[in-house]
Amino acid sequence: MAGKEVYVKRGAGKGWPEECPPIRAANAFGFDLLANFDVTFTRNRAGDWRAIAPTVIESDFDYSAREEGPGQPLVQQYAWFWEKGQRIPHVISDNVYAQIRNQVKISSYLFLRTDANEMLLMTDVPNLPADRGWRAMTALIETDWYPASYPWHAVIELSPGAKKVTIKRGEPLCRVVPVRRDTYFAQQMSTNEFNDFFERGQAWLATHGRVEHESADPSATPQAAGVVDITRTYVKQQVRSKFIVQR
Question: pTM (2 decimals)?
């Protein structure tokens, strides 16, 4: 589903982060992968996690690797952990396992494809509370050339200090943002470039800002004239990206 501007219902008062236009825009930038099932993880005294009553689903069709061979349903576990001493799909050393044993993979049950030179950035949903008990790991998936033969999964990290973590069905697991494969540059502005940039900013403030406390000096800059309120103008001029799930 498309990201939402507000995820946390606040109480009375002014100045909540969700009232800031750039934060609202970040909250709604991208798509959310939602939890398909309720799942609860518990940790034993040794520090190892397990899923309570793990969910496993089967396909409603039979699959066979050979045309003439017998078929059977495909099976996909909903959530699973790294295994100590595992060799496939890649080797995990014991000392590395001790550091990543709080991570769990959760299937999206989705096959994701993008156009050429378009990739998917998977990351945590912006600005959610830090005390949820878990966070999504960030990954950049090259879905334009890699056609996974299984549904994509999100990797989340459970809080090392928690003993029990529950994720409810419909809760956002992670954020997915389409990005272009390209070369990106950054460099310092020259003195003239900065002067032009700064003057443009002053002109914008003088045109669109609402000065709260007027100065007696008519030549004063917007900052010198007092506190400038741009909130309403910023919202009106802001051009937001749209994320639509087509049915």
Answer: 0.85
